[in-house]
Amino acid sequence: MRQIIIIGSGPAGFTAAIYAARAGLEPLLIASSVEAGGELMKTTEVENFPGFPEGIQGPDLMTKLQEQAEKFGTEVLLDDVTSVDFSGDIKKVSTGYSGDFEAQAIIFSTGSAYRKLGLDDEERLSGRGVSWCATCDGFFFKKKTIAVIGGGDSAMEEATFLTRFADKVYLIHRKDTLRASKIMQERAFANDKIEFVFNSAVVGISGENTVESLKLENTVTGELSELPVQGLFVAIGNDPRTHLVHGQLDLTTSGTIAVAGRSSKTNIAGVFAAGDVIDDTYRQAATAAASGTVAALDAEHYLAGLAEASAIAELRDAEAEIELIDSLQSTQS
Amino acid sequence: MSNASAVTDASFEADVLNSDETILVDFWAEWCGPCRAVSPILDQIASEHSSKIKIVKLNVDENPQTAAKYQITSIPAMKVYRGGEVVKTIIGAKPKAALESDLAAYLA
Fold this sequence. Notes:
Chain B: It comes from Subtercola boreus. The structure holds two protein chains of two kinds. Chain A is α/β, with parallel strands linked by helices. Helix content of chain A is 29%, strand content 25%. Chain A folds into two domains: 2-114 and 238-313, FAD/NAD(P)-binding domain; 130-234, 3-Layer(bba) Sandwich (FAD/NAD(P)-binding domain). In chain A, helix 1 runs parallel beside helix 2 and helix 1 packs parallel to helix 6 (285-332). Classes of the chains: A alpha/beta, B alpha/beta.
């Protein structure tokens, strides 16, 4: 049995691993087989992670975090967790190919998954013009007209990035104000290739084999219109990835894992949660890293408590034994 | 690094379309993180089912004609060819079990 298993390999998971490894807990970090590194693997330049004044590429940052975690003794497993059982004192984790693992403590940091539009043709045209990853797929839209949906930082970043390839990028947003940070908004506004389409929701996607046009609904007037585009990048937010722990860990009304106050403590002793899976508000690499730090310190404290309790129990057993010997000796004499 | 051999715009017809074997073409690029993640999984599948399927790679940066011909707009994209025809398309990096299930008909 291990002392600690960390599930998830974004900034929260790897930062938790750095702390846990430095505390000598020899963590196992289960990173996933194809999504290791998490969301930052799909970003380009990260300009707001402290300590990198020149900026750093998202995948490079994740490689560095992994190196730092491994340097202190973290074991990284490129496999997927298929199920967990947190009901007993010993927590059980099953994986796709590497078998089952047990630990005294768990840090759950599975992050979040891209939100889908929920439209009929979204799935059918996914990979055929509908995409969730501008850095992966932007290349295929050279000299094309495309649309990005969303009003947050990731929508601004994707739209700005996509102008490297596309001739024109429509940025479609439900409201007439953006959630994105000022610097990202200004960058998008200043870009000649980006045209904002406010107060509009995408209600349909058309196309035989590839995306040909979008059906837009004006969210104020209800008026419908058709917008011809060859690609659609969806950046409308994320949902916490909690399916592994449904029925085991308490969730909040917004779907994140519930933790006590500013700690990482879930409703089950020994199970700690960190990163985007507990946070749908800030969702930054730096806040996820901080959250991973909290979880590692909470877990370390919990494990120290367990060790102390078992030491006290051993001491009591020893004392009881001595008493027994004493009493036997006194009856003999 | 992948064990799969590379095919190009120039060799695609001979290596893939005119081949007697069942061939999976992995459309990929250097800058695609999910492509790097799926590559070793494809290597494993190829070595475990070498008598059934051959897996090759096509770099979309260097071979735009073939990528355009097969309307690739998202990578990794994996297409299975038999007798010159596409018989199966898989888009996006997936865990090994999911890929094996998608490819079940060609691995048995």
